[in-house]
Description:
The protein has 116 residues and is mainly α. 81% of the residues lie in helices and 0% in strands. The chain has one domain (3-115).
Amino acid sequence: MGTHRLAELDHALRLAGKGYAEARDGSPEQHGALNNLAITLYERFLRKGDGKDLREALTHGEHALRIASPQQPEYRDYLANMEQYIAAGYARGFSDQDALARANSVLNGARQRLAR
């Protein structure tokens, strides 16, 4: 990926972080901002391969799933995103197996919440 594209991604990450910082606790904007931040970190992980980005994407994705209601239309998207992050972690040999196990646990709990 070219330097220009990485710069755009870094800019998007700054904007996503700002959106999260400005969101009210517990609001739909907060879990949406967390999801956007996780997506952007995941995209950077795919481009640069830095495990720190995937670890943070997992953490923010977990938080979004914990605070969002399963009745919200975005909830299934958050689930799908987490599945994608976890799969990429395994496929790319992500070394933080504890983070992947924790994310799997949160994902399973979120699926159970959705099934109720």
